[in-house]
Amino acid sequence: MTSCRLGVTCPTHCPHALPTALPTRTAMSTSLLLELLFNSVQLALTLYLVAVGVTLVFGVMNLVNLSQGSMFMLGGYFSAAAMDWTGSWVDGAAIGLVAVGVVGALIEFFVVRNLYHRNHLDQVLATFGLMLFFNEIVVIVWGREPLFLATPPGLGGSIHLAPGFFYPAYRLAISGTALVAGLLLYLLITRTRVGMLIRAGAEQRRLIEAFGVNIRLLYTLVFSLGALLAGLGGVMTAPLLPVQTGVGDSILIEVLVVIIIGGLGSLRGALVASLSVGLFEVFGHLLLPIYLGPTTGNALASMSIYIAMAAVLVWRPTGLFRSI
Amino acid sequence: MCDKATKSILFRTALVACLAGWSAIGLMSSARADPVRIGFLTTLSGPIGLSGAEMKRGLDLALEQLGGKIGGQPTEVFTVDDKGDTNAAVQGLSELIDKDKVNFLTGPVTSNIVMAILPAVAKSDAFLLSPNAGPNPAAGPLCNPNLFGVGIQGDAIAGAMGLYLKKIGKNKLYLMGQDYQAGWDMLGAAARTYDGPIAGKVFTPTSQFDFASEFARLREADPDSVFAFYTGGAAISFVKQYAQLKDSGQVSAPLYSPALADPLLFKAEGDASIGINIIDNYNPEAKNPANAKLVDAYRQKYQRFPTHYAALQYDTVMLLDSAIRAVNGNLSDKAALRAAIRKADFASVRGNFKFNTNQFPIQDYYVLQVKKNAGGELTMAYVTTAAENYADPYAKDCPMK
Q1: What's the CA dihedral at A159, A161, A162, A165 to 10 degrees?
Q2: Considering CB atoms only, which of A156, A247, A301 is closest to B244?
Q3: Would you say residue B96 lies in a domain?
Q4: What's the distance, CA B350 to chain centroid?
Q5: Is there a contact between B268 and A247 if contact means CB atoms under 8 Å apart?
Q6: What's CA B368's distance to the chain center, in Å?
Q7: Nearest by CB to B46, which of A39, A239, A246?
Q8: Residues B149 and B176 in one domain
Q9: Chain B partners of A289 at a C-beta cutoff of 8 Å?
Q10: CA–CA distance from B256 to each of A211, B187, B274, B279 (Å)?
Q11: What local confidence, expressed as pLDDT, does residue A174 receive?
């Protein structure tokens, strides 16, 4: 067996490869670590965009909303179709987002409105039904073959962020857009009259209705806003993911974990939980298979966010945060 | 006008004439012809429905060219959507066998479905002609006289790619695949025949669509070639994300795969798929009359090249056609029918084709590369033949002779 010396790339069967090989790996590992950190933030912010619609709708309307995964999917479909039609990335994305917002308002008007006075199980069933409905509708309209959505022009390359550290420009753009959207949402909720009503609605629904606020319109607006943000998540990730039926379903599952950890109805909670889930997902999937072997590692990494969720449920059954 | 008696005589005469005619037709055909009843058990919904729909196109086109009669016999097709779910497949299968009394089964897309229905198929009188899926155990110890792997054996296709990688002198291979049976089999087979230094081997969960972190690791390992097994939506994500890294000079290793790109995925992958090397037992550019007939008709109907799935399902029907003709439509003599299928005396769109003792193919494997042709259309261009008359290594474990 070959002995491992410093600076020599060790074959994988070398029993003590790690300690001696470490010095040559440190420089690279820092950039790898940074890259993973950026990846987890990007994943977290995407989850957050979808989670807002679930948590806000629950906070304000006390409604469990599982249709957000579909809005994520529709964002991709509408934008891909609109980009095909207009030939421009930005125009297509804008049209797609508006379309998702409109669909959100329509769903609220025709379906969700009838569910406010029903129990949570009915709401789950109805919005789950919407998910199945949209998964089939896109197949009927666009066919089963996934659509194409290109990376926006000029964002195809990588950006040199630090010595030896390159990061894909488009992934930075996703994080940037999500941050801006999150900031705008924060300003909307804390600094505007509509935001004040939303907060009031979350606290005292009956009271603000008694004050003569058009609560129905407010509900439609909140639901539509949630749909729009999920749609934004869908558009932004579409150049990386397939635009195909059911693509929002797996996102929805992670979002539900985020919501449960963060606390139903809490925007701050959703942000904190998104970041933790992002870190768990990215670092878990990378590190656990290295240390525990691929089979155990992958299995444990896939379970890690659910284990975290279960732990939070035991420690704090209502999630980390309460208020909006 | 006519009274009751004449009416009844007329009616009786007509009835007798009719019965005589009926039995004459019946006698003519029942001597050797049984209706061909096909159970088309495939995945038509969910993400894998994409491949199932393409198989249906292959089936429909073959039936169209045969005038709706396989082996010259009246043919009926019973379609069942297994939804990619093994329970639904088993249930659909028992309905096809018990209620619809099918003689032949075809259509399963994935290996897990074949494994799930195999026990029931083995007990039945029907033959399963699997156009695509060929799980390892079904080619080895679990091989069965009722099962014909007409398309591929999963291990053989990846094994052929490994041989090719070795032949072209790659010596720092990185392997990535989905963490389930087919992924383990494919990566294992490719690594075995490649038989050289491995820079890394990574399995990702089937639900994973974002490979940023895995690609970061891949870049650190700095391989000279990447063997990847991803299908459907995960393949699209993989190709798009890898192309982004490649375009910005972060990675340079070319991709080698049995499944990352095909004419079904071109629309979703766009130019990101250019340069990917695909190993396949179907070469759309193959210069043989059977393939020309398929490609011309397919292009006319769908304005693109057929995929592996469509071509192999088409080929399966043509094989069945030849076998039923060889036994003159007599489907009751199972041994003769089976021998006729095993003979594979038909013009395959693949060119060389014969069955091994385990009833899985001995055939050629081609390296195809995604290129843009003069018309700006993405195509799978023939590069070279990776392996000729190549068989899977499981036949020796199969007790059938």
Answers
A1: -50
A2: A156
A3: yes
A4: 12
A5: no
A6: 17
A7: A246
A8: no
A9: 202-203
A10: 66, 11, 12, 8
A11: 95
Residue B272 resides in a domain: yes
B113 and B63 share one domain: yes
Model confidence band, residue B366 (pLDDT cutoffs 50, 70, 90): very high
Q: Do B133 and B148 sit in the same domain of this protein?
A: yes
pLDDT tens, position by position, B206-262: 878 889 888 988 988 999 999 999 988 899 999 999 998 888 888 999 999 999 999
* Residue-wise pLDDT tens digits, A133-180: 999 999 999 988 888 888 898 888 888 888 878 888 999 999 999 999
Quote the CA–CA distance of A18 and A15 in Å, as a whole number: 8
Calpha distance A174→B365 (Å, rounded): 41
Which residue, chain included where needed, has tokens 């490994």?
B162
Q: What pLDDT does B9 receive? A: 55
Q: What is the domain-level CATH number for residue B178?
A: 3.40.50.2300
Is the same domain home to B145 and B290?
A: yes
**Does residue B369 form part of some domain?**
no
Which of A13, A30, A175, A241 is best to mutate for the B interface (most B CBs within 10 A)? A241
Q: Exposed/middle/buried for A164, CB within 10 Å: 0-12, 13-18, 19+?
A: exposed
Annotated domain spans of chain A: 31-142+165-244
Count: domains in chain B: 2
- A interface residues, B as partner, C-beta within 8 Å: 12, 28, 32, 35-36, 39, 42-43, 144-148, 150-151, 156-158, 166, 168-171, 239-247, 250, 282, 285-286, 289, 294, 298, 301-302
Tell which of B236, B245, B252 to mutate to test the A interface (max A CBs under 10 Å): B236
> Are B220 and B306 in the same domain?
no
Return the amino acid letter for B377. E
Location of structure tokens 């094994």 = B159
In a domain, B290, yes or no: yes
Which residue in A168, A247, A282 is closest to B245 by CB distance? A168
What pTM was computed for the model? 0.83
Please answer yes or no on whether A36 and B213 come within 8 Å at the CB atom.
Answer: yes
> Chain A contact for B209, CB < 8 A?
yes
